[in-house]
Amino acid sequence: MSASHTTGKLLVATPQIEEGVFRRSVVLVLHHGDDGAQGLVLNRPIEAGIEAVLPGWEEHASRPATMFQGGPVQLDSALGLVAVPGDPPDPTGVRRLFGGVALVDLDTPPVLVAPELSGLRIFAGYAGWSPGQLEEEIATGSWFVVEGESHDAFTDHPHDLWQQVLRRQRDPLRWMAWFPPDPSLN
């Protein structure tokens, strides 16, 4: 799969990834080009309140209103992923990536931008791949590449997202949703 064709898609970890932040993860690919790829792990809520890090944003966050670990890169930085309904022009501080998915500048006062959004999630860190790395991981079976749905990034049930995304795929990929967390116990 060429690099540009994964932008906007979901990477669903295969059982080949057995540990770490990518185990049973669902990653939204924000950018994939000749310079590498960046994305956000959508299903890793962490025990960190948004209000302590970014005052004013928590009341606007999609539920569960907590921080999420977006990946292993730059965990000391925060990214705001938002859903922007309608067509451009976009609200102040918002940079549309594809469709209704955008990043919000978290230095923008929330009262200026939040009323224009239909979803908000705050991530600590992101997932990153060097040039050619993601293509190699896909080729060696670490990731399934699937279409996302608009609510995936803002689901109320992030712990169930891996199974939810796989269940809506066609057979035989759909069967992976029932793959046991520890096959040795099967």
UniProtKB/TrEMBL annotation:
It comes from the Bacteria. Belongs to the UPF0301 (AlgH) family. NCBIfam families: PRK00228.2-2. This is UPF0301 protein JQN70_10740.
